[in-house]
Amino acid sequence: MSERPETADEQRDLAEPDQPEGAPEDVEELDEETRERRNLALAQVRTFGDPVLNSVASPVESFDELLLADAEQMIAIMRDALGVGLAASQLGVMRRLLVFQAGPDATPRAIANPDLEWASEQTAEAEEGCLSLPGIVVDVERALHARVRGQNMQGEPVLLEASGLEARVLQHEIDHLDGVLTLDRTSREQRRAARRALREERSFSPEDIAEPAGAEA
């Protein structure tokens, strides 16, 4: 995929995507049934401190009904958790399998053995949340465009050309399969503050870091 210049509006839309994972800002306004489904889904997701989140997943070798069932279950958990992506390792299943749905109108997809074949030099920094880091949002710089190769649930090769939110989600989930968290991608200052918040069981976002004294508005 060759790079092309974007208009100012396109650059703004690509640079400021929704969060790949994590709670919606208005989670308190969810109806009781939706909130309960979300809580049940999140209870199945491994969270910070679990060693599987820092482990590299193994390639998928068997493309059978069990794999398809796992993918369907992952999509259900992702949707109930109100996320847009989920990696198998987040459920303690150490296989290179991810699911994603980059937008409410998009069709959910499952990709086995995803490989980030190409990433654009053009990048953007945006806030990212993560189902495995409850209440934590940090700034992460990622490529605006990406090409990912993998296999569908029948083992057939697939090629994804992604931009904006979809590209960010795919990079985020592939990171999970490689044992990499958003904390590893953010600045040292935000990483330290986020880790402290996790230990104290409270939320964190970049806005929580006070601006230096004398900083210009």
Order of helices and strands: HHHEEEEEEEHH
Number of strands: 7
Task: Compute the number of structural domains.
Answer: 1
Low-confidence segments, given as residue ranges, are 1-17, 212-217
CATH superfamily: Peptide deformylase
The level 1 CATH classification is Alpha Beta
- Can you tell me the CATH architecture? Alpha-Beta Complex
> How helical, in percent, are the residues?
25-40%
Structural features, described:
By secondary structure, this protein is an alpha+beta fold. The protein has one domain (8-206): Peptide deformylase (Peptide Deformylase, Alpha-Beta Complex). The protein has 5 helices and 7 strands; from the N terminus they run H-H-H-E-E-E-E-E-E-E-H-H. The strands form 2 sheets. A 5-stranded antiparallel sheet has the order 1-2-3-6-7. It has a two-stranded antiparallel ribbon with strand order 4-5. A hairpin with a 5-residue loop joins strand 6 (145-151) and strand 7. Helix 2 crosses helix 3. The radius of gyration is 17 Å and the shape is globular. The N and C termini lie far apart (40 Å). Residues 1-17 and 212-217 have low confidence and may be disordered.
